[in-house]
Specification:
Blueprint: E1 3-8, H1 20-23, H2 28-39, E2 44-49, H3 53-65, E3 70-74, H4 83-92, E4 96-100, E5 122-125, H5 130-141
Parallel strand pairs: 1-2, 1-3, 3-4, 4-5
Bound molecules: ligand CA2.
Length: 142
């Protein structure tokens, strides 16, 4: 069975607890349960959230070494700032889908630039948590 990793960056552990008008009411645990329910018996899902850039980079390198089938990444605000995360994704040579819960292009201008998107196969933005489901479906077909 394919292993797909779902990585979430800074502050996404706060999902469902703040700013529900932007990010919805579901928590990260709700998202994990929903993904596990949809892909039960079809994919091995590995979840990781960190508020620390280096931990995300270390995890991406480990996934590359383990020849994970693909990864879904919502790097949070690091999307807009992190050359190091971009380099980690480029170095991993893994199919990767960048997901944003909100539509980053409808928000402040500083969110319109993603440093990590060019290192990913595809980007999904603005579909809410459905974006993670769509990303896993895509990676399983890839
Ligand atoms: O829309 C997205 O998924 C973002 O990646 C979320 C990031 C933001 O910096 C990006 O521009 C777009 C913020 C993650 C913070 O998540 C929270 C969730 C609930 C409550 C507070 C923060």
């Amino acid at each position: 069975m394919k292993t797909i990793a779902i990585l979430n960056g800074p502050n996404l552990d706060r999902l469902g607890k703040r700013e529900p008008e932007i990010y919805g009411k579901a928590t990260l645990a709700d998202l994990e349960a929903a993904l596990r329910a949809e892909f039960a018996g079809r994919a091995e899902l590995e979840f990781f959230q960190s508020n620390h850039e280096g931990e995300l980079i270390d995890r991406i390198a480990r996934l590359a070494d383990a020849r994970c089938a693909g990864l879904v990444i919502n790097a949070g605000a690091l999307t807009h700032t992190s050359v190091a995360l971009r380099d980690a994704l480029l170095g991993a040579h893994l199919p990767a889908v960048e997901v944003h819960i909100s539509n980053i292009y409808k928000r402040e201008e500083f969110r319109h630039t993603s440093l990590t998107a060019p290192a990913c196969t595809a980007v999904i933005t603005g579909l809410g948590l459905e974006g993670y489901h769509a990303a896993v479906r895509f990676l399983l077909k890839a």
